[in-house]
Amino acid sequence: xxxxxxxxxQQETLDSILSERHFIEKEHHVLSENELNEVIESLCLSKxxxxxxxxxxxxxxxxxxxxxxxxxxxxxxxxxxxxxxxILSLKSTQFMNWMTMSAFKxxxx
Length: 109
Description:
72% of the residues lie in helices and 0% in strands. It is mostly helical and 109 residues long.
């Protein structure tokens, strides 16, 4: 093996180690509270746009989050992937049922 081949092999090994380290660091990156809030807000606004396409023009991002986070009152906040799934998989019928129940709970009889 020539000296040039040896240097190329060492460079490839170093690149592989750095790439693996970057992946591990990225995988273990913990979002700050502000970053988490921005992600959640963005997802909720995306869901608002989806609902607007379905004719629900007066839905807000806060209402989406209130609906989704209502599930977490007893159990606490789940992992980020679960929050993302809960927001993106929210159906308009689930949301409208939650809105109706919220109105009944808030009503003074």
